[in-house]
Amino acid sequence: MENILKTYDLSKSYGRIQAVNGLNITIPESSVYAILGPNGSGKSTTLGMILHALKPSAGHFEWFNKEPDPKDLKHIGALLEQPKFYMYLSAMDNLAIVATIKDVSADGIKDSLKKVGLYDRRLDPVKTYSMGMRQRLGIAAAIFHKPKALILDEPTNGLDPQGIADVRQLIINLANDGLSIILASHLLHEVEMVSSHVCILKEGNCMYEGKVSGLKDSNENIIQLGSSNLDSLKSALSDFNRIIKIDKHESDKYLIVHLQKDVQIDDITNHLVQKGIVLNHLTEQSSSLEDEFIELLKE
Predict the structure, then answer these.
(1) Domain assignment of residue 103, given as a range
(2) What is the pLDDT of residue 13?
């Protein structure tokens, strides 16, 4: 599998502020690659550099396995903010204007409108569109020239729940069609739903880079345990030396117990039986992306 983008110690500083620090990421072809991090972590700065809008302070990057060239932008679609359109013109007319500005063929406009689910509304003025529809029209404007990669910066910001669901499903559909997508987001749930790969940024530093499944494959087992007396349960667990940590569930009805990876459920239940503890709740809990994200940001 070829790489769409690869960065080598990519860095950007503004005086004493290090916005991006030695970033090394590899984005495979036909993946949905998320750049995840809180506000100010360097996501937009990274996108600015790889789109030739910002000059790196150090390091370099490659698009499509070759040295960067502004001509590469012909093969890249991007939606970096809420799209702007002529509100009294139709979707077709607006995209025709975009084609003229970009100096690209308009042949793919109708097909792109079908892909984003707006073909039946193609002749309606954009002023009649919802925010979610306008966002999907913005994506159509980014893909009608058939790019090899699509870059989206916080694509669901400001949308209602239906608009968010529509855009997320569109991202999945485009990826299934073979389009490589780079997605910058601070929304964990969004990344977990649509992404195959992720880079987690904190203050310009990459804390993790790789498959989402690899991040969630924790080095611990997590179980929920409950009994009629949680204090007694916690006391009994304190004698089991293969526990990493114990938290109380937000409902105050269970304990969340983090065990070493090789510990079996029978090991912990046999230990509790010997301590005279009767369980009324036992559930295995998978580690979520949110759990791993929070742990990484603590480092």
Answers:
(1) 3-214
(2) 95
